[in-house]
Amino acid sequence: MPARTVKIQPEEYILSALSKEDRLDAALALAGEAFKDNELTMKDVESAVKAIRKKVNVKKR
User: Fold this and answer.
1) What value does the CA radius of gyration of the chain take, rounded to a whole number of Å?
2) How many CA atoms lie within 13 A of 7 on its CB side?
3) What is the pLDDT of residue 9?
4) CB atoms within 10 A of CB 15
5) pLDDT tens, 11-25?
6) Contact 60, 52 (CB under 8 A)
7) Is the dihedral of CA 19, 24, 6, 61 positive or negative?
8) Rounded CA gap, 61 and 53, in Å?
9) What's the rounded Cα separation, in Å, for the pair 2 and 21?
10) pTM, rounded to two decimals
11) Nearest alpha-carbon partner for 18 in 10, 7, 26
């Protein structure tokens, strides 16, 4: 059986090498930079989280 080559994205490898806490910190820092000039309310964030959770739950079924 021939060897199989798997392409790895550098970003995915770097994130997989981090602990869960470090990944969360990186995600929050990235989000903070992306939205630093935007005025988001807590309601906006909560509705976005609910929408994402619904999509994830639908995919699991």
Assistant:
1) 17
2) 1
3) 76
4) 13
5) 777 777 888 788 878
6) no
7) positive
8) 13
9) 38
10) 0.46
11) 26
Question: How buried is 23 (Cβ within 10 angstroms: 0-12 exposed, 13-18 middle, 19+ buried)?
Answer: middle
CB atoms within 10 A of CB 33: 9
Is the per-residue pLDDT at 60 higher than 70? no
CB of 45 within 8 A of CB of 35? Answer: no
State how far Cα 56 lies from the chain centre: 13
pLDDT digits (tens, 9 = 90+) for 25-50: 887 787 778 878 888 887 887 888 88
- Distance of CA 14 to CAs 8, 10, 26, 29, 45, Å? 10, 6, 11, 15, 26
Q: What six digits make up the tokens of 61?
A: 């079924």
